[in-house]
Every structure is written in C-alpha cells, then in structure tokens.
Amino acid sequence: MAAGGVSFRATRIRPVAARNFADAEMIHRQMAVVLLWLALAPSVGAAQSWPSWSAIQPLHADIRGWRQTSTITEIVFRATELCVHHTQAGRWPVRVLDGTAGEGNPWVFAAAGGQWYGATSGWLRPGQVCKGVTRTGAASIGGSTKAPPLETWTPAVGELVCFAVSTFARDATRSSNERSDLVCTPWGTNWSRAERPPPHPGSDAWRDRGPILDVGPRGHGAISPTYLRRVGDELQLFHIAARGDRPDGGPAERWLHLSVSPDGGATWLHAGRVLTWSPRGNEEEGIFSASPTYFSAVTAATATTDDVWSDIRRRDNGALVLDHADRAVWGWGDELFVLDELPDRSVLYIAKGYETQWGLGRAYPDGRTDALVASGPEVVGGGAVGWTVVLARGLDVGGAVLEWYDARQGFAAPLRTDQLGARHVAPYFDGRTWWLYGRLPESDVIRRWELTDPAALPPPEGVDDDPLDPGPAPTSRPTSPGA
Asked: If 0-12 CB within 10 Å is exposed, 13-18 middle and 19+ buried, where does residue 403 land?
C-alpha cells in the first residue's frame, strides 16, 4: 500500500455492552492464583523473601549506592511483555547512541544457589516502561541479561523475582547514576503500590454517558479518539484503531478510522478506515494521532526493526511538516505527535526529544515553533475547540488529570481541572453543551462524558465556521533521512 494512501473498508465497530464481573468470580480467580503459587512455590527452591540491596551481587554496574530518585508504582506481566512503571520514566537524562535515544536500563534480580544476583535486561528509550520479554524462549528475561548465571536462568511460575530501573548501567557509559527502589513479586503476578482509583472516578460536573465504541469482534487493537466535527446533521468521530497486537504486546498497524452518528452521539456506526501509513511495511508503523489537516506518522527504519520515530505530516498529500530530526523544531529528537489546531492555523503538538519529554509545543504557519509546556506532568493527550484547549497530564497508573486552558492566555494556570481518568480525549461543543470523548487506561472502549454544569466551562470562542477548510499549512521542512 502506498505511503499515506487513503482507503475505506466496510468493517464495523460494534456498540459496547457493559462488562461487569461478579464479586464471586473475581474472588475465585484471585484464589486460583494464590493456590497455584502455593502449589508451585515449594518446588522452586528459590528465596521467597525480599532481599536487601546489600545482599545482592550486581552483574553489571553496582547501582546499590546510587541515588534513589524514582519509585516503582506498578509491575504488569503480559503474554509477551513486562512493564515496570516508575515515577521518573521520561525524566532521566537522555543519551544518544548510534542515533537512538535512551534513558536507562531495566533490572531483574533472582536467587541462584542461595545468592541473589541482579543484571540489566535491556535498554529503555525515553519514557519507555515495557519490554518485550518472556519467561522462556528467544526473548527470555534470563537470556536478555547476557550475564551468567542469570543468562541461563528461567524463572518458575510463582518464583519470587525482583525488579528495578536505573539510568545507564549496562556498559561503561554513565549519565546521572540514579535508580529506583527494589520491588519483588512472584513471577506472573502483577504488583501495584496502591489500589487503583475507581474505573470512573469522574468529576462532579461531568456525567458519564457510557461507552459508544469498542474494538469489535474482528480483533481491532487499541482504539482512541482524535477529534470530532459536525457535517450537516451528522456527527463525525475520527479515531485511531489498530489491527491487533504485535508479538511484543504493542498495537499493530494503527490507522485513522471514521465513525458517524446521525443522532448527536447517542448511536454510532463505523464508516471505515480513512488513512493509512506504512512506508516500510512494518507493523509498528502507523498513525498515532490526527487533526483535520495533519497526522502523526510513525515510521520505521526497516520492515523488521523496532527503531521507529514520529513526524507530523499533511493528511491530503503526506508532505512532511514537522521533522523529528530537524534541530530547528522545538522538542526535536525522537517523536512528534499532533494534538490539534487553533483558529490562527497554528498547530499544537506533543514532543518527546532532547529538549523535553511529553512536552507541548506550537508550530506557526511561518514555520516557527516554540515551547508551551516544557516541564511538569507529562502532556499525554488532549484537543481543542476554538481557543479552548484541554490537556491530559500525567502517566500515572490511574489515568491523567485534565486541564482546561484558553490558549490566548497561555498555559500557566488552567481554567479548571477534572479527573475522569482518561488520557486520550477529544472535546466537542454542540452549541449548548460540552462533551468529552475518551478512553480510560487499559480499556479498548471509547466513552463520552457530558458537562452538566454550564457555568463550569465557558463556551469556546474562535470556532471555525467551516471545519472542512484546512487553510494554509505551516511551512514544510526537509524530509528526514529514511522518511
């Protein structure tokens, strides 16, 4: 398929039904995990109590005396992936090696012959918390350490294994010599520092109107809204949907889709796929986000590599607008994601690079870019209606905090904040009422919320009367190598 080609497909994303599990079933599952662990633990022969740092023999850099600046908040085991969430993800110093940016290493600790050993199990790019590792096989966590005796170690289900994260420690290169705390859990058992907030903690001014779209029966992967617009009597929702999951657990082939509602948002029909991007035929390529004029193009170096970057391109012809490798672009270095467009035709975008991690930038029609939010909680999503902008801030387990701004007044103090839990959100104003369409963490469902208090947020100003007219684009910049 041609890069940036447009296609439609008559697939359907079905309306979702509520998914509630009885308490008895949940207890039964929890007890099954406990019984399995108790049954297997005696046969493992490994230590079953947390070690102290002093009891561990490091096989790579000795990080025991490094400053603890990060705290592990959650450990999640998936079929082909292990995620160690921590508070400094995306905030440690970045090092570039052979053109690839990184910020540190994940660590694994296990007991062998009565001695605890620790070794790094790979590299982490800026903000990365998940690695494609498994218990056995080519991607085994023991083999990924490349350090005996852990190199030949295979964890047993239920065996106590410990984890940490640090700045660079796998080779002789160092950055700031920082690490996280040490957390242990039986292999295969997820761990969380605190109970998650309720699935829909909400905010008093917002009413959850329930789910409208899910991934459907055909196996679409992650789904998230990008923006809405009204055309005649039809409400159009543009959203990202993936074909499914990659072997490493991430979403495969994320394309831009369109769903339509003839009744103001109560019912929805999936109209099809409207934009694709896969110049190398790599399933990690695709579209991360989109606005009416632009899209975020995730591109891979080859058909099989996991070395990818993201630029911002025009939807009508695929022309490069913001190049991640252009040093003149604020936030350059790794990934640029379009957030939305403002009435003056400037573009809001999220940047992950050398100057910021999950910061907010603005690109102007004359080609200039500048920083709007360079520090503080991560900007992980959001959207705009006229001059009103909502930003989803933070990578915490329970979801982001939503901050509302008038872009003309800057981004120092929000007009209001909400905690709906959603990270990927798209705002919409129907002339009388504010709506939010969003996806909650670890959910494949798009929901919508209605603002029930009209005084909580003023109507937007500067709304474009003709949403189909994209207007002039920011000046295109040279194409990056390999794009």
From this structure: buried
